[in-house]
Design brief:
With 157 residues, this protein is α+β, with helices and mostly antiparallel strands. The chain is 23% helix and 32% strand.
């Protein structure tokens, strides 16, 4: 058994202003798209948030009904690509930062799976948001989405 030296860096990547996450999901592109914009599905994997497209906006409400995010939809190409602003309104410090951007890219792999890529960028002026969503933040969301679509059950009850 080897041990880690006391001065070894933790296995957590540094917070960056462009964050990229990918996951392969056994699902069709339309099912992934629906899971991203259907509030009945998002509440089962996205920190219990109810996320939906409302006109040219993407709106998220927490489990208690509080507004968690409200951002412009910058691009929408169902079921392949969704680009929208992100504002961390659920956090008082994050709410004061400028909007960042989230891009969802859904690529069909022709084998019954899709590659879902989430890019969260334009975080230069939003260090609190960048720190809050980095690493486990988006990883938990994508893991929950994958589990829900592949099993029909939430990762975390």
């Amino acid at each position: 058994m080897s041990s880690m030296p006391d001065d070894a860096a933790p296995l957590v990547p540094p917070v960056t202003t462009t964050q990229v996450y990918q996951v392969i999901i056994r699902a069709k592109p339309q099912a992934v798209w629906d899971a991203l914009v259907d509030p009945e599905q998002t509440r089962r994997y996205f920190h219990r948030a109810r996320i939906e497209l409302v006109g040219d906006r993407i709106v998220s409400h927490g489990p208690d009904g509080d507004l968690w995010t409200d951002g412009a939809v910058l691009e929408s190409d169902p079921p392949h690509r969704l680009v929208h602003e992100w504002r961390s309104l659920y956090d008082p410090v994050g709410a004061q930062e400028p909007a960042s951007r989230v891009t969802w890219q859904i690529d069909d792999r022709d084998d019954g799976t899709v590659l879902l890529t989430a890019v969260h960028d334009r975080l230069d002026g939003s260090p609190h948001t960048a720190s809050g969503v980095s690493g486990v933040g988006w990883t938990a969301v994508l893991s929950g989405l994958k589990t829900l679509l592949e099993t029909g059950e939430p990762l975390v009850p």
